[in-house]
Amino acid sequence: MTSSELVEAFWEQVWNAHDPEAVDRFVVEDFVITNGGRDIVGRDAFKAWVAAFLAELPDLRMHVEETFENADGSRVTSRWRITGTNYGYLHSAAIGEPIGFTGTAVWEVRDGSLVRNWVERSTPAVLTT
């Protein structure tokens, strides 16, 4: 499996399947994600973060627009779009309205596992959708 295929399998099996426990199949124990300028450190903390995110957007759907990797497969970048119904996303009121936003994720991949992730989301677009 290429690094790009690994990332796309992660998107499908974790986010689109709404299965935080599937994280175990993809990330190392000391995985780090930087999201909104904050680091979430460790596989268990990341799984809890995924579960909380899914609670805010219970019908979340990840639409991968594009994924590509560098020559040695150690970095993968994806552009994506998320759609769903807002039940408290970003600590907003749980209004039950549809929302959507785009983002970019850069992954560090080592030995067939996801090691690190940096995420940027289009938060202003969320607030005006």
From TrEMBL:
- What's the protein name? SnoaL-like polyketide cyclase
According to the lineage, what is the superkingdom? Bacteria
Which stretches make up the SnoaL-like domain?
Answer: 7-116
Coiled coil (residue ranges): none
Could you tell me which species this protein originates from?
Kribbella orskensis
Provide the organism lineage as a comma list.
Answer: Bacteria, Bacillati, Actinomycetota, Actinomycetes, Propionibacteriales
